[in-house]
């Protein structure tokens, strides 16, 4: 669309001033090695497709009726899986919608919200959308998060854990510290990637009965291989969940369609498949990390389904661009402090082989050029 | 959930002050005659289920990937059906989400938005959610809308056409008048029920190339029998569509899941089924209107898939409550001017028989009581 043809005369000031989020590209070419948007390399549980197909086959006219606006069956399944009450669980149209409702419900206040300077790039967009001041707290030099750096008045703190694009994990002790030091702020831990952590029992869901100001968000898009179904969730004290529910019912009462509710519920019930898939991704991350290390890459210790890696010469943009010419898409962020890194989604063994083969040839060529220049 | 347990200490002022929309109830009992939420009595096109099942069967891992954030294929199908350009079409997670984005994109201004005093009850909720002043313009005594009553400064006008719960239709001439008299306001015509109008060619979509300030919203939930799939759309000048797209990408980039996109597209392509279903509903509305008239009901001339009818004694609340005891659910609004009416969704012939049989017995009993009292 030509920007010249756009006339913003009738737009609200808010519409004029937005800088919308730009999702990672979704090119539709064949034979692409797509390692740029952190999708799961494995399909969802077969039970998901079965549940949806069954719903369509058994009740052909089911779709003519409105879905349950509160997604009670799905929330019950999640509550049972995580050993919570159903009114401690909220679900939405992807965790992006859940996070938008979080900003409106808890952060629209005089005090700012705090977030790491390097993190999910939708956070500053939400802040702008909801007129919230976002104060970015610098990561430490090793990209870790220091809870002490967050000691300032705020309406809330939002931290992706593991953080993106670094993949680094904040400990439950540090999260407890944040929650107990900011009792008048809502601490949001965005656990989009938590199921890929090296160790078990690192989710802050275990802390929500202890801290009434702690909200944990998760998504079906990564560890449950359901990015195409758009389901996200939040876990917290029932008063936080009630605020989100009221806000939802003031925006859009029925955010989850019937098929998404049925598919997501089937995914939760198939916990064996879920755990196996997570373990396979963790194993592949370890082998990808090892292969990149052999090529001289500095790889941050990742707890997500991606690795954040610095090529030997720090020429990340060049590497990403050269890979792209061969149909291998990785993500490079043209941003201070992280522009020498590439973020690579954990893929299948075949995709890893293709990537590492391409990088091996690429680095040989770069080394030869370097040698030629210095000789 | 017990309200006593809710602690709103951490909520934003916005969250505290909301009066969320209350959707029509969705009771899950068997043998219910559910005529309260204007769902289509007929199932969606069989092509919808086929398209979704095909997507699941052919590409088992399809759901692991993100959907197209801009729903290009669906928007292309809609553009072709309505003879528009794709960039004149916007789609969202139900028309409720589309309307929320409309309020944020066009109505968040110093000037108020105007709407009929009797209309879709979500409009005042959106106004509150987005901090917009909503001025309600009284319907005429016959429940019609007079465009001259809207002659006052405003940022926009939103009118459901056909209006709900009256079912009355505003003419294209009147809509043109509104659009031409308010060139600095966005005129939103919410056509949730337009496909059930008695005459063809009454949609304001035909006017969007003439008026750059006219936006038309529609939904798949009524005439396309897909309330369970959550798809709504807007048609307008590309500058209006661009504002909605920017706002969407600042809330939630991927509102439509892959299955909803595929199912909705299949529905649009099966235009024969769509037109036949609408004609059947129109025929059933005519027979329901005739049956109610025989019982002495005053029935407004409806262009929607519901009728708004006043029982002979105006005892609408009593009628609704008595029907409910027999498992027949209709909608009564406890609101000035319309509390003597019931809104009855057009159902199947079997549902109509059950309703009319029940009403016949009910009115015989009421007549006998009246006779007994007066004798």
Describe the structure.
The structure is a homodimer of 375-residue chains. By secondary structure, chain A is α/β, with parallel strands linked by helices. The first copy, chain A, is built from eleven helices and 13 strands. In chain A, the strands form three sheets. In chain A, strands 2-8-7-6-5-3-4 form a seven-stranded mixed sheet, sandwiched between helices. Chain A is globular. The mean pLDDT of chain A is 95. Chains A and B meet through helix 1, helix 2, helix 4, helix 5 and helix 7 of A and helix 1, helix 2, helix 4, helix 5 and helix 7 of B.
Mean pLDDT of chain A: 95
Count the strands of chain A?
13
Q: Strand order across the biggest sheet of chain A?
A: 2-8-7-6-5-3-4
Number of helices of chain A: 11
Q: What is the helical fraction of chain A, as a range of percent?
A: 25-40%
The CATH class name of the largest domain in chain A reads Alpha Beta
Relevant terms:
Aspartate Aminotransferase, domain 2; Aspartate Aminotransferase, domain 1; 375 residues; 2 domains; globular; 13 strands; seven-stranded mixed beta sheet; 13% strand; four-stranded antiparallel beta sheet; homodimer
